[in-house]
Amino acid sequence: RLLSKALQQAGGGAPRRLYCTKGFFKSPHRAATTSSATSPKFDGTSDITSTPIPEITDAYPDLLTHRSIHQFSLEQPDEFWGRLAKSRLEWQEEFSTVTDHDFKNSHFRWFPEGKLNVSVNCVDRHARRHPDRVALIWEKDEPGQQEYVTYKQLQDDVCRVANVLRDSGVKKGDRVALYLPVSPLAVASMLACTRIGAIHSVVFAGFSAEALASRIKDAGAETVITADQAVRGGKVIELKKVVDEAVAKCSSIKRVFVGMRTGAKVNMGPKDISLDEAASRASTQCSPSVQGAEDLLFLLYTSGSTGSPKGVVHSTAGYLLYAAVTHKHAFDYRDGDVFGCVADIGWITGHSYVVYGPLANGATTVLFESTPTYPNPGRYWDTVSRLGITHFYCAPTALRLLLRYEDEWVQRYDRSSLRVLGSVGEPLNHEAWHWFNDLVGEKRCDLVDTWWQTETGGIMLSPRPSSPGAPILPGMPMRPMFGMRPVLCGTDGKEIPENGVDGALCVGSVWPGIARTVYGDHKRYIDTYMAPYPGYYFSGDGAHRDKDGHYHITGRMDDVINVTGHRLGTAEVEDAITEHEEVAEVAVVGYPHDVKGEGVFAFMVLKEETHSTNEEITADLKKLVRSQIAGYAVPDVFLVCSGLPKTRSGKIMRRILRKIASGKPEELGDISTLADPSVVEAIVNAHAALP
Ligand code: 6R9
């Protein structure tokens, strides 16, 4: 581990033995439950048995099935969540109220009088009981170099970093931007913030300096934690340079902590502090800040259909409880398992299922720094066999990429440790589902397609909420988690009660993990999530409820596209492109893409007098989008058009552009309402002429 190595080199920390975990991981694997792809047709109204939820079944012995427990969680949320909160979290002061909501103003509060500290819950309480249990396995970019961090070691690191932050003036409530590779340092930094009550804002380390700067400004952060460099897929990424560029644009920044990932020499300016040096001098004792249950825990920026990305706010106790409970029950996590979620910590999946959920449950969690194809397409399964992973949770886009290679890349590695497979981020198509279930999981693992969002904090729909052996159908998240009442609303804004229908996917209950606000803009929170369907939380997704009551996700209903599992607002890309002085107008839409799920398609109109060729402009635009947002946002196709289809009131008809981008010009429908229907023919011809 770099941090600990550096600490030792600096002579500050007591030398440590890296805890060798061979024995720990060889815990016997439980009998696998059979998969259900071939099980008889499931009637959604019939019931499935739940694994016991002791806090509930001890008091209510009749509640043994998923349906009865789920029903109970909706009818008696105080009793349900109150019991779980008491037994699954460690409190410094008890709460007396479980839920306290003001729907009119969209204020949701859980356990309001309670006091607790997240780092104590995620680290100290486990270090007390099992100091040598492995908390983190860092699967570094180069295969075979994994490093293990025990709960005791993690506690020491969290305290050191927390002391450094506190001593340098970071206070409770301050926002701290993290721009870090997936590493123990990143986890220690997140938890160090929680230890002193600072609010972290993790920015995915693939985002550009511009994107980092806008997030720093919006949060009013004074502190950044970064590393010298990152390594991914064998390539070096100059993190510190990106941070320098971003910080130059942000007057709020007072200090930048630079951790060591590669040890490369990087420019150190007056605000820069070597984190390794400072941490090596810091104490491993740090008294935890006593946090209110509703104190802000973190911000995470995510794309919406309009405007700049919004800082989704999660608060302390409700988020942690929901992450822990869903981690346990959606995945049937048990002590001794090795939980492998390969998401980057820059996304919500990394927050909830790499860091907070697993650590709150005292689990061993994998930090995957690499890519699915480095150094070859067997990387995931090589990692599974080397680390003895029992749960493998990834995104459909990676599966679609990998299934193009020979089966041999999967078969050559021992996957007998696997028990549960999971997918998140986009719809899991049937081909990818079968490849994952049949080939990777040998039809003996449970495959859970989990639906949720940055804003929901944790999993909301999943085929198996705590029900081993529950029949699972391919390609859909199927069933609601505890406390979640899925609702489909029609165009009239009303709830549709029947089965076999499509609608806007809403939630008709409140759950502890719901985001509390958009940072600095509560009105935007209300307008986006609460106002569209009054009385419900609106997800932005459409869904189908089949005749048996199971849910399928049909995709976004707004101008958000889902590229390789990353949310991208078309407006963000359009903003970047229109900065080019030769572009007059642009419209960006998503279109189906075999691997990425959705590709990005830019239709643009150039200014009359341009001095560059179309190729030069396109090359400039690629650079521009990459530098304003990130690599994944760069459009796959740029199409120069003479005009865009608009209504008489001047609104661009994206519906038409989506059809053209998808190669379905015959499905355009009625275009007579356009101000100038002839532009459509010109665009269709231009599209047909694309190479
Ligand atoms: C966790 C996460 C949320 C959006 C969501 C939806 C899509 C996520 C899905 C899925 C179909 C699934 N999404 N899981 N679509 N099936 N199992 O991904 O959060 O980055 O906020 O994205 O992702 O469109 O609205 P986030």
Automatic annotation (TrEMBL):
It catalyses: acetate + ATP + CoA = acetyl-CoA + AMP + diphosphate. Belongs to the ATP-dependent AMP-binding enzyme family. Residues 124-510 form the AMP-dependent synthetase/ligase domain. InterPro entries: Ac_CoA_lig (IPR011904), ACAS_N (IPR032387), AMP-bd_C (IPR025110), AMP-bd_C_sf (IPR045851), AMP-binding_CS (IPR020845), AMP-dep_synth/lig_dom (IPR000873), ANL_N_sf (IPR042099). SUPFAM superfamilies: Acetyl-CoA synthetase-like (SSF56801). Residues 30-51 are annotated as: Disordered. Transmembrane segments: none annotated. Its EC number is 6.2.1.1. One of its GO terms (molecular function) is ATP binding. GO terms for cellular component: mitochondrion. Gene3D superfamilies: 3.30.300.30, N-terminal domain of ligase-like. The keyword Lyase does not apply. This is Acetyl-coenzyme A synthetase. GO terms for biological process: acetyl-CoA biosynthetic process from acetate. It comes from Petrolisthes manimaculis. It comes from the Eukaryota. Residues 68-122 form the Acetyl-coenzyme A synthetase N-terminal domain. Residues 572-651 form the AMP-binding enzyme C-terminal domain. The keyword ATP-binding applies.
